[in-house]
Design a protein that fits this description.
This protein is 20% helix and 31% strand. The protein has 299 residues and is an alpha+beta fold. It has 2 domains: 143 residues, Aminopeptidase (3-Layer(aba) Sandwich); 129 residues, 3-Layer(aba) Sandwich (Aminopeptidase), CATH 3.40.630. The longest helix is centred in the middle third of the chain and has 16 residues. The mean pLDDT is 96. It binds coenzyme A. The site of coenzyme A (COA) has 17 residues, from β6 and α2. GO terms for molecular function: acyltransferase activity, transferring groups other than amino-acyl groups.
Length: 299
């Protein structure tokens, strides 16, 4: 028997990102629900062009419930997977328990099937919400270890500000031509996620290696403790040359993706996170090696 939905007083809309007020209603829903501001995305080239939002709107223009899907091609175990991702799933408290989220989940799943995606991924702190639809949690691992001896590279390096049009252009071009940062698990593109993530964590620095045309997303956790979040370029350089180019004193390193292309091997450590990474795919998927998606791909 199909379960009921109560959408009285609400209007369903999909594909509404082109409408300024409706986009603003999503920004408000995500601020109110998750305390995340995706408003700056509009200055950063806009949402992912493949996005397909599904929403129930109240008559005052507020978004009561939403779930968005978008194409997120992934590299998993050395193979390109034509994946979609779900994001921005939320229902305002006054409208919860009426079946609105179940309805949006079914609509988003139907869209993914129609588009022929091989897999769907999401992050959630409520895995039970998605298990009935065949999503399974995959363990994520970061890598830690001693810093390699820096390979001194004399290259002009400067910090990029993605909100500056010239820097945004550089970064967007690099993101279009990027190689997956790991063969184990990485995004193939997803420029919009990278760009908004530069704004969501003020501790992230984006350094531009001028000559090599490489963007490095990194943090200094404490003096001497380097965290590498992502490397955007066509040919991934070694960790030793990244540290050398940044010209920083580093003793300990955390790499927040599988470092198979970095010429360095740390120790895999289970990622401490309140959310789980889930995947829905026809067969069973397990990573060949411990892995995680770069935080710059968070969605
Ligand atoms: C979680 C949330 C989206 C549920 O919305 P909702 O409109 O109340 O959900 P529905 O009434 O459509 O219920 C859908 C199903 O989810 C189940 N469910 C609802 N809340 C749940 C929760 N916190 N954990 C697990 N399952 C839940 C319901 O029992 C129902 O199951 P059924 O289909 O077997 O009947 C909503 O509470 C919310 O926005 N929470 C805050 C943000 C959030 O957690 N977003 C989703 C995580 S990515």
């Amino acid at each position: 028997m199909s379960k009921s939905i109560d959408h009285s007083g609400l209007t369903f809309r999909r594909d509404y990102f082109g409408h300024r007020k409706a986009w603003g209603a999503l920004v408000d829903l995500l601020k109110d629900t998750f305390d995340i501001d995706i408003g700056p995305l509009q200055q950063l080239g806009g949402p992912d062009p493949s996005s397909m939002p599904f929403g129930w709107f109240a008559c005052d223009g507020r978004l009561a419930a939403n779930l968005s899907a978008f194409a997120m091609p992934l590299m998993i175990n050395g193979r390109t997977v034509n994946a979609a991702a779900f994001q921005s799933g939320a229902v305002r408290p006054a409208w919860r328990g009426r079946g609105l989220y179940r309805d949006l989940t079914q609509k988003a799943l139907a869209w993914c099937q129609e588009k022929g995606f091989e897999a769907i991924v999401l992050y959630t702190d409520k895995p039970a919400l998605y298990e009935p639809y065949g999503f399974r949690a995959l363990p994520l691992h970061a890598y830690s270890g001693n810093a390699p001896a820096a390979l001194k590279v004399r290259t002009p390096v400067r910090r990029l500000n993605p909100l500056e049009p010239a820097d945004l252009k550089l970064l967007s071009t690099a993101l279009k031509a990027r190689a997956p940062v790991s063969a184990a698990l990485a995004v193939r593109a997803s420029a919009a996620m990278f760009l908004i993530n530069t704004q969501l964590d003020p501790g992230v620095r984006i350094s531009w290696l001028e000559r090599e045309r490489i963007a490095v997303a990194w943090k200094m956790e404490a003096p001497g403790h380097f965290k590498l979040l992502d490397v955007v370029c066509a040919d991934i350089p070694s960790l030793a040359s990244i540290i050398g180019a940044l010209n920083i004193d580093v003793e300990a390193v955390d790499v927040l993706f599988c470092p198979d292309k970095l010429g360095w091997s740390g120790q895999a450590k289970s990622l401490d996170s309140y959310t789980q990474f889930m995947i829905r795919a026809p067969g069973t998927i397990a990573f060949d090696r411990p892995a995680m998606l770069s935080p710059m791909a968070d969605f």
